[in-house]
């Protein structure tokens, strides 16, 4: 390896004539060279960024009014779900941060600051509790299970996301996987509150935004108390880095049906989507989506497609089918402004066989659908709230056929449809 004859330390404030020289003879092996590289970085630690508005996009999403749509999916797929894991794992991110700090794990600055961590956690917890309780008492929103009128916002989700934000603030730069794990646990808490029928999705999103905001604000107040330097960024700047990404989103689809036997030629679909993707660089990522679908068709459309197999009724209830869809996708992303990105994707997959829900139909007929292919193209935008958490909105246009199986001689076509989808999602990495 070739070494320069003279190496000058750029961080040392010494005049050029009296500069600190390290000659070639002083560097005898690679270990000394590595020590020199570390020496060059002394004094170059950046001030901590404070992202006070990081939770605002999530709070805005909580006002979209999708609560009943998500509850319908929950009632379709998990009507008897009752597991209170969310009561316990809500504390995991905060306990992890406190345990690592007490153990003495160094942050990105190489320091051990357990007292400062305790102050930040106490301030954040107090702020979060006050905001949650004030909103609960003022909103008086009824819970989905009708047990009380203190649904909005979700205190469990606020606690989990506050802990995840504090864990990210303390160790996110030095140990990104800790930050990713904290946000993943927080998202799991939010899903648990919905699955247990204790909260609307709006409550969960609002709780997440309050938790993130209180975590950032508490950490900023701690910095003021201990006279630490920080920079407030109202609109953060974040780059996309290669690695695995985990998506959770919900979507509403509306479509016109072609080749049907009624004037009520429409189809409504609500879906929960779980995705796994790998980002290769700033521009491309490839992944697989698993979609829990709830397709709703008018009674007359099903009756017409079966050519009189069902009786005509004056006030028929719609037929509702539950289905599982698998889709592979490729996505291209481009930066529009700082951490605001645009996205375009193409996907292809299969809608697996599904069945109707007899309890929600006006007849006792149990109908089944066939496995059909589906194609989808998407345009959307997302914002990187932190390096490990992103919020996205998509509009999808999809083509799909709908066929009944097991009725009459052969499979009957309900109709082909072009679906327009609006989707909201959260991505952890």
UniProtKB/TrEMBL annotation:
Q: What is this protein called?
A: Phosphatase PAP2 family protein
One Pfam family from the record: PAP2
Q: Which domain of life is it from?
A: Bacteria
Chain ranges of the Phosphatidic acid phosphatase type 2/haloperoxidase domain: 117-219
Q: Which InterPro entries match?
A: PAP2/HPO, PAP2/HPO_sf
